[in-house]
Amino acid sequence: MSILMKRRSVLLGSGALMLGACSKVHDSKAGESLFGAVDDWHKGLQRSLTARNALAPEFAPEDISPFFRGNGSTDPQNDGYPQHVAEGFANWRFTVGGLVERPLSLTLDQIMRLPQRTQITRHDCVEGWSAIGQWTGPQLSTFLDLARVRDAAKFIVFRCADDYTQGRYYESVDMVDAFHPQTIIAHRLNGEPLPVRNGAPLRARVERQLGYKHAKYLTGVEAVASLDDIGLGKGGYWEDHGGYQWYAGM
Amino acid sequence: MRHLVSTRLWHWINLIAIVILFMSGLNISNAHPYLYWGNWGFAPEQAWLAVPRFPGWMTIPDFYSLAKARDWHLLMALPFAFGLLFVWIAMLWNGHFRRDLATRKREWRWRAIKADVVQHLRFDFGHEGGKYNFLQKLAYGSVFGVLLPGMILTGLAISPGMEATLWWLVDLLGGRQSARSIHFLFAWAIFGFFVLHVALLLLTGPIGHLRAMTLGGDHEPTNPPFARPRHENGDSA
């Protein structure tokens, strides 16, 4: 009986310890690498169950939500962004650089003359909410092919114009998502030029991942072999400063 | 009665997984405490439920952190999902499901159900013959057949990375925000089962139950002192 009582106390005690220790486990080096691995496992599982170019669902015009909520930066004030708004983004440039054979610097007019893709998709924020909108813009692959991205490139980094408290926003995807047909550089939402709150003049759409991957206020993309030297090395502003998973498919 | 080693192993791994999933889930709920039906929803006026904010003692970690809560949630989702797959295969393989959990046609008769309910209300938990009585089979059956797999399916349905493959599942559930609402409701239904489960164990000899679920061996539930079996000689049929 007493041995059994002890067993139960050990069981309950270890349960309490486990819960109390969660924060400690999480912040340890081993914890950090475990959670990094978990992100990789989910990516591996999802990718093994999903065809490389399988499309996220696209919706009918009547499914579009009456408003498209803006989140994160919704009105950047840094580094001349308000000036660009006032000029109607006439002097905005979008660059394609890094590991490419032919770096590009494009105006919005040039971007609008490229082949366009229009898609009505659902945007899922990491917080839990969803909104549906119609996006128009060239596929990211169009830019990467024009610039002739090198084989050494393993990731595409999205460069943005908006500052957060700990620095400039940025995000990244691997080549699977960079060349996915629905990964576009959008300049229109619901047929209108992109509103400032949703990332004017250009934002990324990465339809099989959560909202924080869809970088706004794009100034360019950069092809890189590794994310180690970008920001703090985790592949995105929130990954670096907020602890979010780099792969955001779940 | 006797628990197989597959059941015992799964039971404790699943307990750890479910506790962490539930508590990290409440932290995630705090990030946007509104639930919607359909595919989209992003503002309080569209919500069918404004969820109360869960205090730190109910959540993992014990302060608001969507990122860390998601880390724990996604970690424990794996042993939870693969564990359930394992225990279902084991239950079908070793006959536990057919022998102990599947209900018989005669158990669905109103008189039999009424007798079972009355017996429970008298805190009389002895049962002759089978391992579990009808209400137990119903409870375990709903948990194994609906709530636990439902959590995995709704969890997959709210993962944008799976939707290119599982779009039909999202449609079946009524859209992503419906799937998210069901995920939340099922989580609380499992919590309800957990409370009932623990309460009934406490009433029927918790030490014996713990020993049987940990070490195995034979074990019969005992009635609490205030039980009122219909017949003193235990012939309650």
Describe the structure.
The complex is a heterodimer of chains A (250) and B (237). Chain A has helices at residues 2-27, 29-49, 81-86, 108-112, 140-146, 175-178, 237-241, and strands at residues 94-98, 104-106, 117-124, 130-137, 155-164, 167-174, 184-186, 188-189, 192-193, 203-205, 218-224. Chain A is of the alpha+beta class. In chain A, the strands form three sheets. Chain A has a five-stranded mixed sheet with strand order 2-1-11-5-6. Chain A has a four-stranded antiparallel sheet with strand order 3-4-8-9, with no helix packed on it. In chain A, strand 3 and strand 4 form a beta hairpin. The N and C termini of chain A lie far apart (46 Å). The model of chain B has no long low-confidence stretch (mean pLDDT 92). Chain B is built from eight helices and two strands. In chain B, helix 1 (5-31) packs antiparallel against helix 2 (66-93), helix 2 (66-93) packs across helix 5 and helix 5 (134-157) runs antiparallel to helix 7. Helix content of chain B is 62%, strand content 2%.
Shape of chain B: globular
State the helical fraction of chain A: 25-40%
Oligomer: heterodimer
**Radius of gyration of chain A in whole Å, from Cα?**
21 Å
What order do the SSEs of chain A take from the amino end to the carboxyl end, as H and E? HHHEEHEEHEEHEEEEEH
Topology:
The complex is a heterodimer of chains A (250) and B (237).
Chain A: H1 2-27, H2 29-49, H3 81-86, E1 94-98, E2 104-106, H4 108-112, E3 117-124, E4 130-137, H5 140-146, E5 155-164, E6 167-174, H6 175-178, E7 184-186, E8 188-189, E9 192-193, E10 203-205, E11 218-224, H7 237-241
Parallel strand pairs in A: 1-11
Antiparallel strand pairs in A: 1-2, 3-4, 4-8, 5-6, 5-11, 7-10, 8-9
Chain B: H1 5-31, E1 34-35, E2 49-50, H2 66-93, H3 96-101, H4 110-121, H5 134-157, H6 160-172, H7 176-203, H8 206-214
Antiparallel strand pairs in B: 1-2
Helix pairs in contact in B: 1-2, 2-5, 5-6, 5-7
